[in-house]
Design a protein that fits this description.
2 copies of one chain form a homodimer. By secondary structure, the first copy, chain A, is of the alpha/beta class. Helix content of chain A is 27%, strand content 22%. Among the domains of chain A are: 1-32 and 133-210, no CATH class; 47-131 and 220-228, Immunoglobulin-like (Sandwich), CATH 2.60.40.10; 598-697, Immunoglobulin-like. Chain A contains 15 helices and 30 strands. In chain A, helix 3 (154-167) runs antiparallel to helix 4 (172-186) and helix 14 runs parallel beside helix 15 (575-587). The longest helix of chain A is centred in the last third of the chain and has 21 residues, at 509-529. Chains A and B meet through helix 2, helix 3, helix 10, helix 11 and helix 12 of A and helix 2, helix 3, helix 10, helix 11 and helix 12 of B.
Chain lengths: 698, 698
Amino acid sequence: MPKKSEKTVKRAAAVKNISAEKPGLALSAPGESEPLRPETQAGRVVIENVRPEIDGGRFPIKRAAGEEVCVEADIFADGHDELVCELLWRKDNETAWKRIPMRPLGNDRWRAEFTAAELGEYRYTVQGRVDCFLTWLRDLKKRLEAAQDARLELPAGAELVAAAAARAAGVQKDARRLAALARDLGTDGEPGEKAARLADPELTGLVSRWGGDDELVRYEKELEVWVDPVHARFGAWYEVFPRSCSPEPGRHGTFNDLIAQLPYISGMGFDVLYLPPIHPVGKTHRKGANNSLKAGPKDPGSPWAIGDKTGGHKAVNPELGTLEDFRRLAKAAKSHGMDIALDVALQCSPDHSWLREHPEWFRRRPDGSLRYAENPPKKYEDIYPLDFCCLDRRPLWDEVKSIFKFWLDQGVRIFRVDNPHTKPFAFWEWLIRDLRRENPDLILLAEAFTRPRVMYRLAKAGFNQSYNYFPWRNSKRELESYFTELTRTEAGEFFRPNLWVNTPDILTEYLQFGARPAFMTRYALAATLGASCGVYGPAFELCERAPREAGREEYLDSEKYEIKHWNLDRPDSIRDFIARVNRIRRENPALQNDASLRFFPLDNEQLICYGKQAGDDFVLVVVNLDPHYKQSGWVELPLAELGLSQNKRYQMHDLLTDRRYLWQGPRNYVELDPRACPAHLFRLRRYARTEQDFDYFL
Amino acid sequence: MPKKSEKTVKRAAAVKNISAEKPGLALSAPGESEPLRPETQAGRVVIENVRPEIDGGRFPIKRAAGEEVCVEADIFADGHDELVCELLWRKDNETAWKRIPMRPLGNDRWRAEFTAAELGEYRYTVQGRVDCFLTWLRDLKKRLEAAQDARLELPAGAELVAAAAARAAGVQKDARRLAALARDLGTDGEPGEKAARLADPELTGLVSRWGGDDELVRYEKELEVWVDPVHARFGAWYEVFPRSCSPEPGRHGTFNDLIAQLPYISGMGFDVLYLPPIHPVGKTHRKGANNSLKAGPKDPGSPWAIGDKTGGHKAVNPELGTLEDFRRLAKAAKSHGMDIALDVALQCSPDHSWLREHPEWFRRRPDGSLRYAENPPKKYEDIYPLDFCCLDRRPLWDEVKSIFKFWLDQGVRIFRVDNPHTKPFAFWEWLIRDLRRENPDLILLAEAFTRPRVMYRLAKAGFNQSYNYFPWRNSKRELESYFTELTRTEAGEFFRPNLWVNTPDILTEYLQFGARPAFMTRYALAATLGASCGVYGPAFELCERAPREAGREEYLDSEKYEIKHWNLDRPDSIRDFIARVNRIRRENPALQNDASLRFFPLDNEQLICYGKQAGDDFVLVVVNLDPHYKQSGWVELPLAELGLSQNKRYQMHDLLTDRRYLWQGPRNYVELDPRACPAHLFRLRRYARTEQDFDYFL
């Protein structure tokens, strides 16, 4: 691509037989009452409706490293002239734009793509101009087709090409070729013959390429892409309380105990090991079992009540081990293919040193006492919230930043942020933008179970992943409409859902009532609807489902308030099922993205059917949503869009059972018994060889 | 409403027990790395997704005088605090905003309305803030409901009310009342009793009203409304060639002849009388009958080939009469209830004086000759286009503006602009904004039969009405999808369609083949789908349908190139039908808007059904799209939405035939014979009285 040439207005102007004294600027800006600028086509081009663009460019879109950014725009001018349009992109720290020609899609819509290969920030925008030469060429062809005398038109073309030659002066090869073409068009001859010479797209492309960069109209905004590590898009998370990992019932588990349990967890194929807060737990107003107000002497308290005299958010609970132990755990996890995610809960136990050292960071009652956390009528006496809007908040904001930096320094790259929706959006935007500068591989998961607008705004503010409503979307209609919203609307550009089947706070009714098949169904859904998914274990794989109270979604004897001792070898564990699903996720790129998700018709409301694709890999998922009964129905696939023909068989290879089915045509039968396996994870194998070959399918 | 109070940060800050030295600003701006500003809730509020807003506020929305502007926005903060949100609006030339409380619609969406009563420009925006008092009050109620001891909370409320009292200092009545309430909350007592006193919404509203204007977050944009005369939204247009109005065959008609014809035209109930260009017609390269290259001595030429030695765009063709005659015509039309619309075609015949006086305003060939209009392979030798991008274009743009001003000075307020899509958008934006300043009653109809984006952009640039694809939307599916796009999307905010059934350039195949019933069908559709509609007559009401060539949509012996003599009394004229439809349009406000258009199911693809509403007036239209055969089917109406009950009959009064039908329930039968009348225009009359009354329906 040529660099933007020097202002060539004089030459361009010469083409139109007028003199140009002033530089080639655009037509008057809208609303101005002074339209006087020299002749230019630039002001004629309009750029509208650029996508993706979040809130008018106020927020970046997100990509994982290596993903494509497909940019579209309406670009048009008055009249009927031909346009040339380009996508411009660059890494944030580069100054020169890379230019990619955009393709017309019809109706003045243009498209081009670039790959966001590296971590960090990219920028993109678009530009376009009227191309006088291409317009002239198109009209010449029309004239010749209508058998009109086009002799008079040749000199006009010659002048346009001569102007291009002049612009190309710095690139001798191009300039010579263009000058020769201009001479040829300028000399007498048969227009038809000359036009024939112009049938060469390489030659006309050369003219167009030197066709007048000075008249390009640039879109007024530069749009931003945040490029995250692939794990921001794809990963299976496992939440575990290290204090429950002791092999001896009753003893407080340690990081070392968790290290011993890593083979079990990684054996299920998880990618991220998420630990609830690992900091010292406050003693004052410590909660007892089942959230009772009085803790017994052996009650460990909620790990979210952070801080005691031994330290706060930068300290490790001595009962779990030392910072050194933690680093060893992280290293061991890495050797098992897992990254550690830490929990950042920006709140304090009554014993946290900040309450004494920085009382100005907390809210007070009129009587001067600090306010503990409340969501009336609920009270959290063991937790004091921070006031991020306090008068002297800069030290608080900086201190919070230093907490992240401390753990980043320990090698942690993934953080699950507790209740981000109770802190100001401006705080998150400031914090994340700043942290990303030195740590583009940072991944923040927002635990914001709140209203949709708030959830989306946190994602716009920079959170890389988000908890979401998946736990409560159970019917086919709910799942289809929610995941269509998440993947087929603008939300897909900035909001990455992480699909949790349960959390220490959430034991859904579906799991309570559906028992073991429901746990398998929900994991199959989470792991295939979502490239990112998570379970709180071992409660999940052991199908724990006793609620604290009927009609509520809290666990009985919640691990939040007590140490558990899990029997990991229980025969009803679904660990093998999870392991199989996670292996399939790792082996099939189709399941590693959300953008390709598409639902297909299936004539039974208890069966849901959808597909995901990545390159040649197409995985079709069918899940029985009814945890009690066998269900069957007919799937309907859009054959042509999948590259299948009506007449050829294709193979559906169920990766869960390793059974292979021969299908033909758009409608095929499926049947799933939840007591055996509630899901098909079909890999589509297209018919590729002849009968002479051993395997017919690719 | 109170005026924005003085900065009351000090008092507000006191409420939170901290001192405030600095003014109350918002939290740090996004992307800034300096978050340090004094305590405020302001930075917590986010305003997103404000509607209507065209291209990020780049363009105004349009209203006709007296219409409502309904504004919605997502407004929310982090956490769970109560918000107070307001719509702000003002006339462009006023400085003070009017404030209207917004209502929450759920999911953080807020709504309020204002009326754009007068011609000209209005502005609007929205604002919101966290309301600490309302939050405190809500929480107090929750605490009391949960039987918690709320005694400690009363002083906090007292402080919030005291702060409001301080803010209200300028309005003694309010200040006294608030101070009393603060004292009451501040003294010992039973929280339940105090809360009971706060059940009065008028009292709590008072606290909230003085709750801290200094913490309001204003949306960053002011959005614009252009308010046009009602005729910009509603009117039936009639296009007529004055030169064909002579009662003597062969004689060139005059303005006086047209005056004589006004009773005929106004008798059909038209509101706007649109004349093709009335200027002198060029002689050089004048076109003959059927667009032939050679004109005979008596051929009048195309009126769009403007200008000869007697004058150009500000002159009147002497064969039509004088400028004085024109003014008389306009006056006579007014006395018949019609406004004149003039045609502005910004192009010149070869004889226009501009070609000699301003050759720089035209494009040239390399040999120096001026270029006539072409759309290769089509040639328009009798017309020279202007180059709006020429180097010294300010004099040209000014000259064009002076043409509009000239005719505005003659009292003309409506202009139909020929081919605006071949002139730069920036030109139109500049021109229209400038003309509107002194003439807010100006109405410009864009004749831009071009691509959708270009059409919409011209509307955004300021055209008040637009030709559109209606002539080619014939099937039920086409009509439903096109008019759903025009009325149910953002396009409805800036694009007002004017539905022409024909033009001198467009004789659609539907009319050619469908004969008289097709003409009735298309007028019924145009006049009810569109609040603005138009016909080119008398060709239309006389059902002229001979094409110049099979498969083309041009008239044979087009009036563009010859003088016609019409027999207005032909028995097959549909003038009576048009008159009836137009009378119904004038009598039913429902048919005078497009925004309320809604389609209803009807189980026959040849029958289309839709309704429009204005206040109590609901008109249901059923049209038979098949010009050849009788069609019947079952209409299905959403009873509840129309305020009808399943159990009560309602009356459908066909205003075209004056027949009344009793309907009951959602499904009712319709039948239309195109040879009799292809449409029902039902006025819905709801069952209102008892059997004892004379007429049961309203």
